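Support reply, case 0932

Customer input (verbatim):
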Amino acid sequence: MSEGTAAIFTLTANPAPAGSLSVAVTVAQSGDYAAAVAVGSKTVTIPTGGTATYSVSTVDDSSDEANGSVSVTVNSGTGYTVGSTATATVAVSDDDVPEVSVAAGSGVSEGTAASFTLTANPAPAAALSVAVTVAQTGDYATAGAVGSKTVTIPSSGTATTTVSTVDDSTDEADGSVSVTVNTGTGYRWAVRPPPA
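Our regenerated output:
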């Protein structure tokens, strides 16, 4: 299930109780998905039908984070014994992906590396591989510098990549070097590139 959806658990008493049965449980989580008051010691009442459904609310936030889980464990109590399946766990998936943007540094003279900063907002929970295309006008970038590349943005949220240029002896018109963010997994564009 995705964050923001309630995790559903079913408690079963076998045989069904003659009257309403109060069962002590502990709600726990990995990660930070459950609502603030949802974790900890709780009580679930199983009616004479023998089953009860218990839901744990999760929060749909804007943070990019590792997937997690929510679990319910049946504790010992009065009027029942704990069965062999004492804990049930529901996986919770993060539905937030960072928005990646790129900014160019100051203009440079040939022979100096052009600098670009890629920013992921929010910062990723782990290193994020971003597909980019390096292009140029004129003939300034070093051999192998243009084309499809990958830039890794760490959990700090920013990464700097450089494109080397050649200081040659040819008199030529001024040019430029560009970096464009392409589609990829685990992120989206801050600004969509123009269509090709």
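We compared this against your earlier run and they match. Two observations from our side: The first strand starts at residue 7 and ends at 12. The mean pLDDT is 92. Please reopen the case if you see a mismatch on your end.
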